[in-house]
Design the sequence.
């Protein structure tokens, strides 16, 4: 059967079922539920547990000093001499600029637009660590929600093999529906004003082939470290 024949059959089927499909679409609710799992007494604990199930690493810390100690250790372990990431003021972790400066690390610019894009990507490719903040974090699924824009480049959470994300307790929500409602409340029609997308990150990049062999890191960082600051 030719391509044109296949498409013609699909059009015929859709046209025949269109009234029923429109009726079903109108009948169904269009608002996502704020959450789907039973309530947990400890939202941070739920978030940390979900990340662990996904083979990510989560750290529950009391303050910025403990968070900085973890970042310092990860820099040492990866032998990083450079990092790629969000502008440090967009992450909002007190003491982070001083930590990087003490180690002689200057964050690399993630701007890869224009004619030199390929060469710039090749320059950035060896950098082992990405540092980012988040817009929100979803406890039920252990997901990070990143809203990109000025100072918060999308590339930063995709290129380096080790992604370190800083989450503050106030950024945690219970479920996806709650997160979407909060975004709509904050930004309204301007949600995509400075950016073309939102990124949801749920654990390290995972890809399975037809034989269900699981590989980490094919389409993104194979390591994700999430530091939850409770102050």
Sequence:
């Amino acid at each position: 059967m030719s391509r044109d024949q296949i498409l013609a059959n699909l059009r015929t089927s859709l046209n025949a079922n269109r009234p029923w499909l429109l009726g079903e679409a109108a009948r169904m609710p269009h608002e996502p539920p704020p959450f789907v799992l039973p309530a947990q007494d400890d939202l941070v604990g739920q978030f940390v547990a979900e990340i662990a199930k996904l083979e990510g690493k989560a750290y529950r810390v009391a303050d910025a000093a403990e968070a900085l100690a973890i970042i310092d250790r990860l820099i040492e372990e990866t032998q990083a001499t450079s990092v790629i990431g969000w502008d440090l003021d967009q992450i909002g972790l007190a003491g982070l600029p001083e930590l990087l400066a003490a180690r002689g690390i200057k964050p690399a610019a993630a701007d890869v637009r224009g004619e030199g894009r390929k060469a710039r990507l090749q320059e950035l490719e060896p950098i082992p660590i990405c540092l980012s903040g988040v817009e929100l974090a979803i406890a039920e699924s252990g997901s990070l929600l990143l809203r990109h824009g000025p100072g918060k480049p999308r590339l930063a959470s995709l290129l380096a093999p080790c992604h370190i994300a800083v989450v503050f307790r106030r950024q945690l929500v219970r479920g996806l529906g709650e997160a979407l409602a909060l975004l709509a409340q904050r930004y309204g029609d301007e949600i995509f004003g400075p950016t073309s997308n939102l990124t949801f990150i749920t654990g390290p990049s995972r890809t399975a082939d037809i034989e269900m062999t699981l590989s980490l890191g094919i389409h993104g960082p194979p390591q994700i470290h999430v530091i939850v600051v409770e102050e």
Remarks:
- The first strand starts at residue 57 and ends at 61.
- Residues 91 and 133 are 4 Å apart (CA to CA).
- The chain has a mean pLDDT of 89.
- The two ends are 63 Å apart (CA to CA).
